[in-house]
User: What shape does this take?
Amino acid sequence: MDTAQLKKFCAQLPGATSRLLGHPSNILVYSVGDRNFAYFKTSEPERWRFSIRVSPDRFVELTDIPGIKPARFRARYHWVTIVDVRSVPAAYLAELVEWSYNKALNSLSKRRRIELLDMRKPASFMESVGWALAHQNVERWAKAHPTGRLKPS
Assistant: This one.
């Protein structure tokens, strides 16, 4: 898989967006919601180096391979940088990207995941009324218990 194919693969994941951050970062970031799952360096000398998040076990495994190194400033979060994406088998690279994407997607709230993936219609009228009633009950309880305790001290 070359750089163009990998960029296309990242962009086609459900809910994925890309944005180009200019100077001084010079990176092309792929994210789902507000969570990053991959990025390319777009300036020399590291042009088109690709970074993704991996599991802690894979981090140790991958950083032992020549051409794959801990990502700068993000290694403590288990991000790796692949110097040349053509050196990694396409199926394995796709698996790594999908894992990173799923990690980012699952870190979002359930409601946000549903919105991004268009799996469910917007909340019904009854659901929204239910939230409003619950909020009113919390406010009523807070007025009755100004200290936040159930029993007076």
In short: Residues 34 and 52 are 15 Å apart (CA to CA). Residues 125-144 form the longest helix (20 residues). The radius of gyration is 22 Å. Residues 119-131, 148-153 have pLDDT under 50 and may be disordered.
